[in-house]
Amino acid sequence: VHSESVVHGDLTSLNVLIDDKGRACLTDFGLSSMVKMGEKFDYLRPCAKMPGAFRYSAPELITSQIKDNEDEDGGGDEDATNSLNHREVKERDIPSPSSDMYSYGCIMFEVLSGGVPWEDYAIPVVVILTGKTPERPQSRDVHDEDWIFILQCWLSLPPLRPVASQAL
């Protein structure tokens, strides 16, 4: 989808279906954005309020969501906190190809390990924000190059993450 200037914005294993030919197909484009060469055509606020989605969310989107919740719940200027339309949207707030690649790494981890990322944590937000990654699965099916790619997807600096074409 990135080659078509689309950012999914909500990649989880639940949004990947396998067709009758064994091909992975993405679903649930409700939070998708269209981008073109750094310009934003459309933007929908990411929905990371469901605890399960946090397991697949890039840290920069989680910090954005936490900031949004503090703005909505905390005191301060009521006009600024009542509506997100009045809030300045920064680049870190917007799902990006890099945040999709972080999520892709989480899906790869789940496929290769058989477990969800950070499955030992009911709410893994703090662990994700510290930059800690799940331990490498002990399965023989997890090859070194796959594990290295997953770790690259989880890099804390979005520009250092692989691009989608490298996953093919």
TrEMBL record:
This is Kinase-like domain-containing protein. Pfam families: PK_Tyr_Ser-Thr (PF07714), Pkinase (PF00069). InterPro entries: Kinase-like_dom_sf, Prot_kinase_dom, Ser-Thr/Tyr_kinase_cat_dom, Ser_Thr_protein_kinase, Tyr_kinase_AS. Residues 85-94 have a biased composition (Basic and acidic residues). Residues 69-80 have a biased composition (Acidic residues). GO terms for biological process: signal transduction. The keyword Calcium does not apply. Residues 65-94 are annotated as: Disordered. Keywords: Kinase, Transferase. It comes from the Eukaryota. GO terms for cellular component: cytoplasm. GO terms for molecular function: ATP binding; protein kinase activity. PROSITE patterns: PROTEIN_KINASE_DOM, PROTEIN_KINASE_TYR. Residues 1-168 form the Protein kinase domain.
